[in-house]
Amino acid sequence: MSLWGVSLPWRRAPRSALSSPLTVVVAAATALLACFLAASAVLIASSAGAAATDYQSRLSCLDAYGPVFSRAALTPETAAAVTDTVRRQAAAHGFPQPVASMFVGILPRSSFGPATGRKVMLGYRDQGLAHLRQLAGGGAAGLWVGDDLTRFSPVKPGDPVQLLGRDVAPVAGVYHALSVPPPRWWCSQQNNATVYVYADDPLSTIVFASDEKTYRDTLAAMKVRGTTLHVSFYLDPPRTPAQARDYLNRSAVLIEAVRADLERQGLGDVVAMTRPFERSTQIAEQAGSNVLVSILPLAGISVLVGLGGIVTVALQWYQRRYPQVRLLAARGTGPWALGGFAVAELGLPILAGGLAGIALARFSLPLYAPPAHLDASPQLVAAGIAGAVLLIALALLAAVVALRAHREFQVGRVPGKARRWRLLAVVPWELVTAGVAVLGWTRLSGYGASSRLGSPLPQIDPLALTYPVFVVLTAGLLSARVAWLLLRASHRLRAWSRPSLQLAVRRLAGARAPVTGVLVIGVLAIGTLAAGNGIAAGQRGALDSKSGVLVGAVTRVDVETKVGLAGAAALPESLRGTGTIVGQTSGTGSLVLVVDPATFTDDAYLGALRDRVRALLPALRAPVPGGLPVLRIGHTASQSADLPGLPPAVTVADLPWFPLLGSSPGYVVSRDALTPAQLTALTNWTLLSTAPADQVSGALAAAGLSQSNRVSQDGALDALPFSVVEWSFSFVSLLGGVLGVVAVLGLLVAVEVRRRQNALAGALVLRMGMAPRSLFGSHLIELGALAGLAGLAGIGCGLTVATLAVPGFDPVRWLAPRPALPDQTGFVLAVVATGLAVVLLAGWLAVRSVRTARTAELLRG
């Protein structure tokens, strides 16, 4: 009979589904999770690519996103022709007006009013004066000098200027000299627009022309025929790899148009035409691709698990609707019509759950993916893939019911079929998963090796990234195997003196299959969540600790010798409570750090060594017989005890690493143990501060103190390799959370499926005199044993795997300290609290079914 031959059951099917609300909820939740995982895999990879683009944009100069036209030693006429050509073509191709920069080399014999015999550089940049802090002047056209010149000479606006001994435009104003590194607007011109104060023969200042005409007139007056040209564009930072690629394509078109225009003018290739952001775009695209490749196997497995849940729902529906299915089959309804009957009853919940999963994946994206801007394209792809999974789920529901009906009502039961299924349960699948885990472990050992070869991102090996999951899966299968064997032998247990325990064991033994299934999923969920969270947190901690050791604190900046000799008292008031001065000298293959014990342990980055260093520094305060007490770092057999300009080293203690030194051979000396003459011999002084870099730089500049080589902890290391691993394992954590929901639903479904059986048994034992409290305790023992075993195995295995894997995923292995698993106490407490809540809820549902049951009806049924 066709699907429409018996219309009434199909027409009532959606309403009939409400007779088993839990089945409807499970069907919808299973579809939701499957579609959620399918969509989230695409979205997290796209977010990773966009976040990598954001990161690369922050590292690049603001005028590096578009094309750059540059050349040294151009004549002023050629530079003007090139600039005009770029401006004309930019307007024709939809680019904003470019910013042109022109500089000439070092100009000796320069004079500015009373300041004579100076060495300066001359430059001009479109809109440059608007991005300088003007201190004096500014009315007339002329030349602007920095306060690094006026600080030592009384130069003021209106003073005459001579460059190369020739009279040029007068001083028009004074600006605040740019520090190193300069503000981002000046980033691409750092070598031209800043003065390095520690050069052997330093410049006095950078002289800026107020406008392009003044610059060209000044060149003509000096009879200088060579200038450096740099023309670039200030575009909005690209937010996604697609936008960055669009910038590159448009830049290539503009470059070809400019080249053709210059060739028509007979200039040919007089300038270099580049796309500086091209490499950054490739790295961002590779980051997104690496994350996608990393999570693809796990995403595929998780979607298959979700579809397996649909199969379970189909089988449970078939079992629950068996009387009606048998009646319809007896009346001639075909297997596929019966499959359509299942779709008619559960199709709407599955469809609603799938659509909810797609929406949830999109709107909860900030909770599991890096913050980034997403184009419409990846969102449509994610929705399309999740929609395909949803259609497969509906087809699978119909197919499973149809095949089951075909086998039972048309073919009949095949002898030996059940035996073959039982043989599959005997196969040691844990050996297979353990083999895959071992293979992943062998691949993990070379994960970070590519960082030594200069590759910006470690080479991705999906097997290495799936290693933690397969280890946890092996633990889950082993736990299930042990539980299965124990429950099979549980009939030997005689504990009737403790009826609650005896009943709990008998209920577990009577439902070995669902118990072991929930146990496997529970161990996999908790273990995967623990491993994913641990490894992701380990990467964040590794980046923080390695960059902290490399910089030495939040901010590091080299300062003048007078600051170092005066110690912390010479620092600006705003930095005295946040900074410490470190002296450095090198020789005999080792670097020597001279630290101030009063401030060093408070302001330098010491991580886990802080308490130990604080206890050791007092032993370095005074010289000892035979030499100078030191802390020895990174000891090697060839490390000499001779210190340059200091007494021999007498080692007080060895440390594996130290700020600024890392694990390289070196010594740490207390400045209290050195004489003033020995301190004067130190070659370099550095300020380590817990304050942000801008605050440190501003305070030193306001105090009139020179500074150089400013480094911040935020930018000391390339964070992208760490972030790629973190983003990849955020999906592993997401998978663990989803599996945790599946495990909870599976436990509740198991309670619901056995509701009639438990209600009858519970009603009988209550009639026999068992107290309701004892019955509730029996269910708590049953469910608590299951949840406790899953939690114990999952937490133990997951944290162990994370502890072993965190160092393996280190992308910067050459830099100390070695990554370690952060404190996971909060995670363990959260798992325990969640497990207790689930056990109490499931136990309450089981006892509630007993109290609301009618014993006579149960016995008649």
From TrEMBL:
It comes from the Bacteria. Keywords: Membrane, Transmembrane, Transmembrane helix. The chain crosses the membrane at residues 291-315, 336-360, 380-403, 423-444, 464-487, 508-530, 727-751, 783-806, 826-847. This is FtsX-like permease family protein. It comes from Amycolatopsis rhizosphaerae. The lineage of its organism: Bacteria, Bacillati, Actinomycetota, Actinomycetes, Pseudonocardiales.
